Amino acid sequence: MLSRTADNLFWMGRTVERAENTARMLDVTYRNAMLPSATATASSEWEAALNVGGNAERFAEKHEVASARSVIEFLALDPDNATSIYAGIDNAREGARATRGTITSEMWENINDTWLEMRTLTWEKMELRGLSRFFDWVKERSHVFRGVADGTMLRDDSYLFLRLGTFLERADNTARMIDVKYHLLLPEGEQVGGAVDYYQWGALLRSLSSFRAYKRLFHDAITPIRVGELLILRPESPRSLDSCYREIDAVFKELREIYRRDFECFRHAGEIYSRLRYSRIEDIFKAGLHEFLDDFVARNDSLGQQISADFMLRV
Question: Nearest to residue 307, comparing CAs of 263, 261, 259, 271?
């Protein structure tokens, strides 16, 4: 496969997943900011949302106050913000256009239709439709895109690079969401396990479609260590770090068979996956959850760069 094609497919998977993740985060932040709370302000909720993707500095260059409208417009509609939903769908559509001969017609129609509707949206139209309905629409379009890809693409290296981008991005988002919750959303002076803490951890679980999974697995009150276990180490959870790297490991095994050689990115991924498989959540919390997640995000980003160096000649 041409490195340019692999690059487009890899980033198509990443940007569609990123748009969905941003919609999830904004939806839960929007709902959480409206809850009555004596210790958490709406402003702190929106500031935390900016920190998930490292957008605080770029946001401050264009806006003075982190309000619902300013943050949602910046993270959903701003074409100049490379991590916005608008930019994600735009980039995915450009990648699809560049690989029309590789992807299926159903995939192109899905992403093109999504882009055509996205480009017409304004804050006023989103408000009229309902903000939560907009976020649900973004998530639905992402789900449909992945479903169409799974149902129509040949199981060759094109399909594998698309999946690789999806799970690398998903792992990054999950780690960042947990880290921001643990260090930025918990109100100063609030005790872990308090009422506000319960709602915030519950909001995190809902943002990752994991609330019911938590209840089914643990049958217990929501606690930080159990949330961490579910979203970091449990392979049953489709958005956990372990689950994402299980998928990445499977992709790399197939790419090894196709290309009949080992690449440096295979070794990098193996190191990250082994650490996840053989870690215990008690040890992670004891050593420092922030330190673990910060190291994971750095390693995950390094893996992305190594994939580009090995397959796409872009670092």
Answer: 263
Alpha-carbon distance of 88 to 200, in angstroms, equals 27
* Residue 287 identity: A
Q: With pLDDT > 70 as the criterion, what percentage of the chain qualifies?
A: 91
Return the structure tokens found at 60: 């401050």
C-alpha span between 308 and 123 (Å, rounded): 36
Q: Is the pLDDT assigned to residue 145 strictly greater than 50?
A: yes
Rounded CA separation 314/4 (Å)? 9
Alpha helices in 63-207 (DSSP H): 68-72, 85-98, 105-118, 123-129, 131-152, 157-180, 195-207
The residue whose two tokens read 């789900």 is: 143
The C-alpha atoms of residue 302 and residue 208 are separated, in whole angstroms, by 24
Q: How many residues does the chain have?
A: 315
Q: 98-103 contacts: CB < 8 A, separation 24 or more?
A: 98/4, 98/5, 98/8, 99/5, 99/8, 99/9, 99/12, 99/158, 102/5, 102/9, 102/158, 103/9, 103/149, 103/153, 103/158
pTM of the entire predicted model: 0.91
